């Protein structure tokens, strides 16, 4: 069973474009939950272009005891304005899972994972992972499709990795996904071999998800936002979530 976690960033993009409360994040989350999703993902960023700290708090209250809450983001990005930083938000709301992502300020979206072959990178992450685990959060690290150094991830406390599927999705669209898919599959295999559970995400869609899912045995979770919310414009949010769940059955 692969859990579907719906990323609501793009609902917040639309809302923020006008100010006000619509479309409403809580209503969108409730719709996804009632349609059967297993989790909700948000990726707050210091520039608050989409998910804001208050959204993180609202969703925490709404999701508790219902579905998994996955908060993604860069733990090293500085607090800015009323954005207190990723770790501070996690201290407040204690999500089920925190996915650490090494994206920089102002980056249009995530485009690479942590370099776990680098001891310096690992030592920066180690205390943060320790604190998050003490808070009761499961910790996942965003990694490249051809990630190296996975064998060190459990030693610093990580329990999962999320494989960055952007290159796979791009290759799929161009009709030659085999090479990128093989990288994801091999990374998943090596991660599982060292005791890490495997998540995947970025630019997954109804078109490319089934192939990825079939190729990675034991895929624990996919987090999907951009394509899913786009598809929902045509098909409705609940229907779209159900279609993803069909693919994951
Ligand atoms: C880690 C990842 O791939 C997603 O969280 C992606 O970065 C979505 O974030 P945006 O919606 O800000 O692009
Ligand atoms: N972790 C990936 C995610 O949450 C959603 O990414 P995308 O589907 O918006 O590209």
TrEMBL record:
The active site is at 43 (proton acceptor), 72 (proton acceptor), 202 (proton donor). It comes from the Bacteria. The keyword Cytoplasm applies. Its EC number is 2.6.99.2. Keywords: Cytoplasm, Pyridoxine biosynthesis, Transferase. The record marks 162 as: Transition state stabilizer. Pathway: Cofactor biosynthesis; pyridoxine 5'-phosphate biosynthesis; pyridoxine 5'-phosphate from D-erythrose 4-phosphate: step 5/5. One of its GO terms (molecular function) is pyridoxine 5'-phosphate synthase activity. It is found in: Cytoplasm. 1-deoxy-D-xylulose 5-phosphate binds at residues 45, 50, 109. Pfam families: PdxJ (PF03740). InterPro entries: Aldolase_TIM, PyrdxlP_synth_PdxJ, Pyridoxine-5'_phos_synth. 3-amino-2-oxopropyl phosphate binds at residues 7, 18, 203, 225-226. Homooctamer; tetramer of dimers. Catalyzes the complicated ring closure reaction between the two acyclic compounds 1-deoxy-D-xylulose-5-phosphate (DXP) and 3-amino-2-oxopropyl phosphate (1-amino-acetone-3-phosphate or AAP) to form pyridoxine 5'-phosphate (PNP) and inorganic phosphate. This is Pyridoxine 5'-phosphate synthase. It comes from Dyella mobilis.
């Amino acid at each position: 069973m692969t859990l579907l976690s719906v990323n609501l960033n793009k609902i917040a993009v639309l809302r923020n474009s006008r100010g006000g409360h619509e479309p409403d994040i809580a209503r969108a989350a409730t719709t996804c939950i009632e349609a059967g999703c297993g989790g909700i993902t948000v990726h707050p960023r210091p520039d608050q272009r989409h998910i804001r700290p208050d959204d993180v708090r609202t969703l925490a209250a709404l999701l508790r005891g219902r579905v998994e809450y996955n908060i993604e983001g860069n733990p090293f990005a500085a607090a800015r304005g009323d954005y207190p930083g990723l770790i501070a938000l996690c201290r407040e709301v204690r999500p089920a899972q925190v996915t650490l992502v090494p994206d920089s300020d102002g980056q249009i979206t995530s485009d690479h994972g942590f370099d776990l072959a680098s001891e310096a990178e690992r030592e920066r992450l180690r205390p943060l992972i320790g604190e998050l685990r003490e808070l009761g959060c499961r910790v996942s690290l965003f990694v490249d499709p051809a990630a190296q150094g996975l064998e060190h991830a459990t030693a610093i406390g990580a329990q999962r990795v999320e494989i960055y599927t952007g290159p796979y999705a791009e290759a799929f669209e161009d009709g030659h996904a085999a090479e990128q898919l093989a990288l994801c599959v091999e990374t998943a295999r090596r991660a599982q071999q060292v005791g890490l559970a495997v998540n995947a995400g970025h630019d997954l869609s109804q078109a490319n998800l089934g192939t990825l899912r079939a190729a990675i045995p034991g895929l624990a979770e996919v987090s999907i936002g951009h394509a899913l919310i786009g598809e929902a414009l045509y098909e409705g949010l609940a229907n779209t979530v159900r279609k993803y769940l069909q693919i994951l059955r």
